[in-house]
Structure formats: C-alpha cells, structure tokens
Amino acid sequence: MPVKRTLIIYHSGAGSTKTIAEIYHEKLKDLSPDLIPITLPFPYEILGHYDLIVLGFPTYHGEAPHSMVQFVENMPSFEPQKTAFLFTTYGLYPANALYHLGKKLKEKNCVLSFTAGYRAPATDAALLLPPMKPLFRYGKNTVKKLNNHLEHIRKCIVSSQIVEINPRFRLHALLNYPNQYFGKRVTHQLTVDDTLCVQCNRCVHQCILTCWHRGSSSLVPVYDNTHCEYCFKCVHHCPANAIMLSSKTKDAPN
Ligand SMILES: Cc1cc2nc3c(=O)[nH]c(=O)nc-3n(C[C@H](O)[C@H](O)[C@H](O)COP(=O)(O)O)c2cc1C
Hints:
Elements: E1 6-10, H1 16-27, E2 34-37, E3 52-58, H2 66-73, E4 82-90, H3 97-107, E5 110-119, H4 123-128, H5 142-158, H6 177-185, E6 186-192, H7 202-206, E7 212-213, E8 222-223, H8 233-237, E9 243-249
Parallel strand pairs: 1-2, 1-3, 3-4, 4-5
Antiparallel strand pairs: 6-9, 7-8
The protein binds flavin mononucleotide.
C-alpha cells in the first residue's frame, strides 16, 4: 500500500501548538511528513502535493483563531477528497473549536478522520497573571494521548483505511458562552520599549495578520491592533522582551 504524503501545518502564538506539531513530525519522521507554519496569504497550490493534512491551532475564546478560520475559508475545495486530521491546544476548555473548524474543513471536501485536543500552558492567562504562570502547564495525560493519536495517524498514513468522523457538538460548551463573549471584547495594546528594542523586526516577520510594520520615522516597529487576534507571538518571539501588554474592555474587533 503506498504511504500517503502528509503535511503537518499549524498556527501557534506562544509555541504550544508548534511543540505538538513538532512532536507529530518527529514521531512520524520515518514516513517523511512535511511541517510548515500557516502564512496569510497561503500558497494553496502546495496542498495539491499531499494526500493527508494534519492541521493544528490554538483555541481562542472557545473557537479557532480568526487567522485559522480565514486560512480554511480561503482554501480551495479539494477534488479528489483529502483526508484531514485536526488538533487544538487549549488552556482550560476547547468548547466547540474542533467542531466548528471540522465542519468548515468538510465544506472543502475533506474527509475528517481524527480530532484531538491537548491541554497546554494558557498563554493569555500566563501573560496577564504572571505570578500564576506555574499553574499553566501541559495536561498530565498529554504523552499518553499523543502516543495513542500518533498510532492512529500512522495507521491511516500507511493504509487506505480512513474512517470518516463527525466531531461532536458539545452542548455543555454553551455554558462557556460568557467567557467567549467577554473574552472577545477585551482588547490589548502592545507597546514597544524603545530602550530595549534591538530593531530586529522579528515581530514584523512573525505576525501573520500584519499587525506590525517597520517604523517610518524611527527604526522601532509600529503596532496596529485593528486585525490583531492577540496570539502574542510577537511578545514571545521578541529577543529583547521589549513588547509590553496592557488590556482594556471595549467593542470587540469583530
Ligand atoms: C487570545 C487567547 C484566547 C484564549 N482563549 C482560550 C479559551 O477560550 N479556552 C481555553 O481553554 N484556552 C484559551 N486560550 C489559551 C490557549 O488556547 C492555549 O494557551 C494554547 O495552547 C495556545 O497555543 P499556542 O502556544 O500555540 O499559541 C487562549 C489564549 C489566547 C492567547
């Protein structure tokens, strides 16, 4: 049976989703999967080289991030069908994030064969409540879960036995609605400390929603939160810890 060509593709702010994607990549390396982060816009034609796509994303406010939704919505409808695996990382509760993105993938003619959620350090909470950072960590059963999931994925890659699943709608996720409603209404203002900034422009290169631009009057990058989904990738990638955060509640960005 021919081995299916596999692409692992992910979006990650603080690195937890990237870590899980890298573990998938490492543990399946004998089957030569490719691993890439999502970019916007994305060269969708490369997806034509793969039979099977593993898609990873963090849960934000009980949903997939806008960037991820945008990535899937702009995807062409596949002909022939493609097999997709979906995983998310979350701090406390992934609500219906997998259900909603799974449905969108099916609209693109993907056969969804697997979904998984991994509890990971809650990046937003760790940034907003630094003293509580030690409480936010990977779930105790993550290694066991990963091993089971990798075994399943391996079977699908080496055989043609793909079983289609329908991700379950979690009714109790409706209780999470206040968190989603208010969470989306908190906006953050990121500021750069000019005295610390080393003008490497890593924030400009890392942001997939182009919230950072090279400064015109100074070499310090300029931030615009109009499209920001607060993944905090810029904060985590800044080598000089020059990006700082403040929050306020106002109208949601969308
Ligand atoms: C803006 C934002 C919103 C979040 N909302 C939720 C949430 O609703 N539920 C949850 O369990 N975790 C939530 N988290 C935590 C992330 O899902 C978790 O930290 C995830 O592993 C981050 O992945 P990353 O490190 O790849 O960015 C949120 C994090 C951020 C930054």
